Amino acid sequence: MVYVATAVGLLLIAALAMQAWRLADNRAMDKAWAWLQSQAPATVETFDPAMVEGLPDAARRYFLYTIAPGTPLRVVSEIHMTGEIGLGSKEAQGYRPMRARQILAPPHGFIWRIRAGAGIMQLSGSDGMANGRSWTRFWLNGTLPVARAGDDENHLRSSFGRVAGEASFWTPAALLPQHGVRWEETDEPNLARAVITHGTLEQSIEIAVAENGQPL
């Protein structure tokens, strides 16, 4: 009986430790989310086509298509997602229902917060980058850590690449030259290239556009 009581006690301590770890993850994520929200400027300009007159032609057409004159130039977006996510392998994808929320604040970072699955197979957690740090933290049933990565240069560079790429379709206003984004000429008349920098990080993205500027 002593051994059983000891085993039960150890399991209880382990469960409590996991819950404390998970709560710490949530607190850190909430703090980072609030920090990203705070990166939105206090005053919001509206779009004037004159803002992009000096850009390479493909870049200018991209902005004229994606942002109508007079649109408030908001650079922090919050996105709600529903759908399915594959939690299996290439051969057996194992799609599960999922819901996610994301905040995107180029070039400062993003958080993608997800809850997926049902029953005894529920996945929750986040990918994120904020305040110079990046992470991947996912939990099974809110108890078992199943994926943890981050806090290294490669992960941070990868996360910044995601920020830059997603800015092109979620927050095009954040790519205007007034935010320090450099637009370069390319050899292709319908290819726009932007270079985004943030501290020591730099990422270029290329956007193929139609004649009317529609991103392809």
Please sum up the structure shown:
The chain has 2 domains: 112 residues, no CATH class; 81 residues, no CATH class. Helices cover 30% and strands 35% of the residues.
Describe the structure.
The mean pLDDT is 92. A 6-stranded antiparallel beta sheet has the order 1-2-3-4-5-6, sandwiched between helices. β8 (191-198) and β9 form a beta hairpin. It has 2 domains: 1-38 and 78-151, no CATH class; 41-75 and 171-216, no CATH class. The protein is α+β, with helices and mostly antiparallel strands and 216 residues long. It is built from 3 helices and 9 strands, in the order ααββββββαβββ. It has helices spanning 2-37, 57-66, 153-170, and strands at residues 77-86, 95-105, 109-118, 121-130, 133-140, 144-150, 182-184, 191-198, 201-208. The chain is elongated, with a radius of gyration of 21 Å. 25% of the residues are buried.
Name the features:
2 domains, 216 residues, single chain, 30% helix, elongated, alpha+beta, 6-stranded antiparallel beta sheet, 3-stranded antiparallel beta sheet, 3 helices, 9 strands
